Amino acid sequence: MPTPCRGVDDRSSRRARHFTARCRYGRAGAKHRTSSNQRHFKEDAVDAETNRRTRTRITDAEALEFHQRGRPGKLEVTPTKPMATQRDLSLAYSPGVAVPVLAIAENEDRAFDYTTRGNVVAVISNGSAILGLGNLGALASKPVMEGKAVLFKRFADIDGIDIEVDTQDVDAFINSVRYLGPSFGGINLEDIKAPECFLIESQLRELMDIPVFHDDQHGTAIIAAAGLINSAHLTGRDLKTMKIVCNGAGAAGIACVELVKAMGVPHNNVILCDTKGPIYAGREEGMNQWKSAHAAETDARSLAEAMEGADVFLGVSVKGAVTREMVRAMAPNPIIFAMANPDPEVTPEEVAEIRDDAIVATGRSDYPNQVNNVLGFPYIFRGALDVRATAINEDMKVAAAEALAALAREDVPDDVAVAYQGQRPRFGKEYIIPVPFDPRLISTIPPAVAKAAMKTGVARRPIVDMARYAEELSARRDPVAGSLSRIFTKVRQAPKRVVFAEGEEEAVIRAAASFVNQELGTAILIGREDIVREQAFQAGIEIRPGLEIANARLSNRNNEYAQFLYSKLQRKGHLFRDCQRMINQDRNYFGATMVASGDADAMVTGVTRNYSVALSAVRQVIPAKPGHKIIGVSLVLARGRAVLVADTAVHDGPSATDLADIAEEAARVARRLGYEPRVAMLAYANFGNPPGERAARVEEAVSLLGKRRVDFEFDGEMAADVALNPGLMAAYPFCRLSGPANVLLMPGLDSASISTKMLQELGGSTVLGPILVGLDKAVQIVPMGARDTDIVNMAAIASFGVN
Ligand SMILES: NC(=O)C1=CN([C@@H]2O[C@H](COP(=O)(O)OP(=O)(O)OC[C@H]3O[C@@H](n4cnc5c(N)ncnc54)[C@H](OP(=O)(O)O)[C@@H]3O)[C@@H](O)[C@H]2O)C=CC1
Ligand SMILES: CC(=O)C(=O)O
Ligand SMILES: [Mg+2]
């Protein structure tokens, strides 16, 4: 058994682990299988220790308070159309509603166009197997079903509705569900015990023309299969020789063994157990046809005997079913998926007391390796709904399992690290499967499922442009991604060379690699090559073609850049040697000069310096565009609405002329980003009331814009609520805005900065920026400490050229 490795040098262990992971799974595709699996296990002990320290624990009281707080439960219904006026009522209800009624009566497919059907999934249970708590009835299952509905929404933007059916009778249950078909795009059956669940699911699949999916069977099997694929890789095992014990021969157990056998594990290598022990050929007690199909030729007559020498334990039974002796008896480097909820068959702590060579997974969120169907059902239904699939078939399930397994082997972005309490999970025994908060799941799993549906002929509406579909999926999860997807598409069509000025920073290297991987352009990392490479190596990032490293001192353009800078600064008190030093030592000067000289198209910086320091360096090299003002514009996305706020970066106390100039710049940016500007010049007052010096300055700016005869809508001075709320704006019928403002001109830098930061921190809004505009070349400055995703976004905006 390997020795514990608390003393292992962290750096070398990370390097070794990455070497192993890269060789096996690197994009280059090399399959290097000679490195020691034992080493993996030792090195991962460091991650295990960190995981143990950061585990989230909750109390029963907290769980009850959470469910009771505010509006009891976890769901509410939110209208998607305004219902504010008499006209709205006429359209939404009688008489307007009759029109879609008649259209649907004529052609059923139109229900997908005029109703919620295409995005609603019913989560249906009778409470006969609530988690591993047993048959507690329909009503008691409601918290779980509401929870599943929330997960549908949170992770895949599907509207889940929980339905608890109070019957244990199979036929009555089937009849309750079959007639609900017109209401939903799919049916997710949940926590219905075996063997009734098999009959219910198979009959409903025949009776209904929408996907019917028993989550506890297939969801569980898919995620367990993905975890098993990766655990087999990590332990150097082959599915064809693996010995598996599955404890629990109910919904989840039968589905798990069916799927692993379909993946290549031989029939007699799988021992399925239930409350009576192993299901062996010839057993008669407690059997049914589904169990019989998996009866194995084995001498084992107890779970303990079955576990002797087993490679894998799949637990889908009840809390505490596995003893320490059973764990001890397993093969070296055993794979233990104790998936019973809420408490596993054996805890990771108990396993750790016995041995340190095991890969351990549970169904819980508070341990690493959460093998739970939450990783499956939201995304599988998303893919199925988006192609209007008639069913979820085997190919779609396998596609989901493979996509999930592959994702865990990819490098992990900052967003995941944040959701993972600041740790960056790395493929290994403590991270065999993506975490539920991984934002990549939404753009990875549904396309795989949709493709499989199209290939197998169950898609009623095939997707033509898969790349675009993946972008739309990201937008469902993250509104910024939606706003950016158009920009990303344009950038991809004309890829540029972008300088990442702080090239020795891990987040910047990660961002640059992602920029290249997403085919957005060439990334130039400024830094000392050996340090950049070492940082990349430590972080497990591959320096691929398209990712260049430029060292200012060694650059063959060094002298020309210093001369260029000198030409700019010689009459501003700088000697040539000052400029030489700035080029050699300050990456912002070097990077900006690269862009100014045409050796790169754009630059992104700001991670290590505060905004004003970075901006001041850039401005010494790159002037404002002739006739333009340099300002910062932030894009705020909240409640499905996009609003630009200016000036969030440069002008502290703008004059009336400054405000008018800023309005013109901001309107130009709005158009460039695809919005027709309606500019509100904000103040605390509305159209002269109450009067005051600051409001008067804004009023003067409005009058200046009038004199300039600008080609966009503007008005003010007005308060933010009047600008954004049509009801309040209606009190000023003379207001020239044709609708709520989408560009908010703040009276000063303090109000601009305070309001955008409050929106960001108080939740409900996403803020992108400040986006720097008005410079003669494309440079963007991210906030200090920005994450890799923000850096990539700003690099794309720089390439897009909003300046
Ligand atoms: N992590 C995840 O994503 C998921 C986990 N699960 C968990 O799996 C478990 C089973 O769920 P599900 O299949 O839906 O339930 P079912 O009621 O359909 O099946 C339960 C099975 O467990 C067996 N069982 C009960 N107690 C024991 C025991 N002490 N030893 C051996 N077998 C036992 C039962 O045996 P018998 O047939 O003899 O009655 C039955 O075969 C639950 O704990 C659930 O939370 C389920 C779905 C997803
Ligand atoms: C996760 C789940 O669906 C269960 O434990 O039943
Ligand atoms: Mg369940």
UniProtKB/TrEMBL annotation:
Instruction: Look up keyword Oxidoreductase and say if it applies.
Output: yes
GO biological process terms held by the UniProt record: malate metabolic process
Its domain of life reads Bacteria
Is the keyword Nucleotidyltransferase in the record? no
Q: Which residues form a coiled coil?
A: none
Cofactors (names): Mg(2+); Mn(2+)
Task: Name the InterPro entries for this protein.
Answer: Aminoacid_DH-like_N_sf (IPR046346), Malate_Decarboxylase (IPR051674), Malic_enzyme_CS (IPR015884), Malic_N_dom (IPR012301), Malic_N_dom_sf (IPR037062), Malic_NAD-bd (IPR012302), Malic_NAD-bd_bact_type (IPR045213), ME_PTA (IPR012188)
Q: Domain (Malic enzyme NAD-binding): give its ranges.
A: 217-454
The record's annotation in Pfam families points to: malic, Malic_M, PTA_PTB
Q: Where, by residue number, does a divalent metal cation bind?
A: 190-191, 216, 341
Q: Which residues bind NADP(+)?
A: 130-137
Q: Which UniProt keywords apply?
A: Metal-binding, Multifunctional enzyme, NADP, Oxidoreductase
Residue ranges of every copy of the Malic enzyme N-terminal domain listed in the record: 72-205
Molecular function (GO) terms for this protein are: acyltransferase activity; malic enzyme activity; metal ion binding; NAD binding; oxidoreductase activity, acting on the CH-OH group of donors, NAD or NADP as acceptor
Q: Report the active site residues.
A: 148
Of which family is this protein a member? In the C-terminal section; belongs to the phosphate acetyltransferase and butyryltransferase family.
Q: Subunit details for this protein?
A: Homooctamer.
The protein depicted here goes by the name NADP-dependent malic enzyme
Q: Native species of this protein?
A: Acuticoccus mangrovi
